[in-house]
Amino acid sequence: MAQSAAPPAVAPDAPLTLPVRAILPWAAFFGILMLILLYFVGAEGGTAAVFSGEGVHEWVHDGRHLLGFPCH
Amino acid sequence: MNSATVRTLLVRGMLTGIATGLLVFGFAYLVGESPLRSALVFEAAHATEHGPELVSRTLQETAGLATGVLFFTTAFAGIAALAFCFALGRIGRFGPRVTAGLVALGGFVTVFLVPFLKYPANPPAVSAPDTLNQRTALYWLMIALSVLIGIAAVVLGQRLAPRLGNWNATIAASVAFVVAVGLALAFLPAVNEMPEGFPANVVWDFRVAAAGMQLLLWASFGVIFGHLAERVLEPRTTTAPTQQAAPPQAAPAPH
């Protein structure tokens, strides 16, 4: 087997790590998805609005205050 | 294989977020709603204008609160699970459960505690509506700064560890974190809009409830996700001895 195909030499007691290349696609896609979710809980309808009106803001009103986000 | 492991951990992280969200919602409903109602009484007595009620108070206290809390906990649990994937084996020689606990501690301190020290949670009727844009920008900026300083401190600790040893490097990185955060707290603009006569005990109770929700969220995430992550990763570490050799005394005796 070619040397390059062999897994990188790992010290026998090295801790388990997950390769960054395996994490990055998930981090990019779900990281952005999660931030959009947080935007709707934390800011939608006050500073900026994707939907018109105060429906989203009023619906999550109590959670927004108690989770520490700025509100009216 | 590794990508599948990341996916499994992400899914388990978000399931953990849903479970902790139910706990946090219960806590918020029982502990947080009482000061929030008191603030609304103050607001009703002092309000100059009243818009139409789009969502009834009953819905806001139950389904609305649950929606906000569950979205929040699921989102942060997903992000924390991805942070766990990066942190595992890279922040020190810790197993999955300890790593999950440390990631949860980091999340609590950087995402909540540090921003809370500068811009604490406020009940309704405390803030001026016309400063909302500025307050929102400052709060998200504070979270971003705090998380970035936290990551920088971890990287600094890693760099210092070979020279200073793990213990001293951890202390040095922690001191650097506190100093950098302290500077950010000192130089960001303050917000103080407390109206005349607003009951102080309501503000205190509200902030204690808000802090309790976050403590409950991050602590239960650390414990539950650590358990689930270990069950994902443990078979790999035992069936692949080249990845992580078991200490000799723990090896099973030959038959």
TrEMBL record, chain A:
Residues that span the membrane, as ranges: 23-42
Keywords annotated in UniProt: Membrane, Transmembrane, Transmembrane helix
Record keyword Transmembrane present: yes
Domain of life: Bacteria
Pfam families associated with the record: CbtB
InterPro entries from the UniProt entry: CbtB_put
Name this protein carries in UniProt: CbtB-domain containing protein
Native organism: Streptomyces cupreus
UniProtKB/TrEMBL annotation, chain B:
A Pfam family hit: CbtA
Domain of life, per lineage: Bacteria
Protein name according to UniProt: CbtA family protein
Record field: transmembrane: 9-31, 63-86, 98-117, 137-157, 169-188, 208-229
Keywords: Membrane, Transmembrane, Transmembrane helix
InterPro entries: CbtA_put
